[in-house]
From TrEMBL:
InterPro entries the record matches: UDG_Type-4/5 (IPR051536), Ura-DNA_glyco_family4 (IPR005273), Uracil-DNA_glycosylase-like (IPR005122), Uracil-DNA_glycosylase-like_sf (IPR036895)
Superkingdom field: Bacteria
Recorded catalytic activity of this chain's protein: Hydrolyzes single-stranded DNA or mismatched double-stranded DNA and polynucleotides, releasing free uracil
UniProt-listed SMART domains: UDG, UreE_C
Record's protein name: Type-4 uracil-DNA glycosylase
PANTHER family xref list: TYPE-4 URACIL-DNA GLYCOSYLASE, TYPE-5 URACIL-DNA GLYCOSYLASE
Enzyme Commission code: 3.2.2.27
Key words of the record: 4Fe-4S, DNA damage, DNA repair, Hydrolase, Iron, Iron-sulfur, Metal-binding
Similarity remark: Belongs to the uracil-DNA glycosylase (UDG) superfamily. Type 4 (UDGa) family.
Occurrences of domain Uracil-DNA glycosylase-like (ranges): 27-173
Amino acid sequence: MDLETLAKRYEQCTMCPLHQRRTQVVMGEGNPRSLLMIVGEGPGADEDRQGRPFVGKAGQLLNKILEAAEIPRQEIFITNIVKCRPPGNRTPRDEEMNTCISILRQQFVLIRPKIIVTLGAAPTRALIDPSARITRVRGKWVRRKGVLFMPTYHPAYLLRNPSAKRESWEDFKQIRDVYKKLLNNVSRQDEHEDGEPQ
């Protein structure tokens, strides 16, 4: 199975009540073999309309952060913990996340990222620690089953609290450094394999 097949499987999803008011399921987008995956909370109005993650104001800020960190958006994979828009852009509820996380797990299996960045409290609680407070855990690496997790602030929070942008940028500098190191290791491995006698 690939990401396209997975998306088709869930395009009419009715597993939780969020399907009742959505326009479309927003599965995520990007490089299907990315070493870095970014997981946000849920689609907003712009995302629900366009069927793409992080295309509204928060998405534009995320693009700027990625650009400053020299991480091309098209090289990585971006998605959300829930794939349908919560009403009024509220935070996804635990039961919604617990239902939808099965889709995210299938995406993990297909993409096999080495770094997962959780944006905001909801994905941090769902993927790292149910009792996590984003203000306490942000900027600290957590390793699970060979994958590095980095919780940081959601760009929507940064738009409301511009003073937190500096902390977020410190987190993204760490993410950039580890990501580039992993990319270098992979390209060296590929060169080594290419250079082996047939």
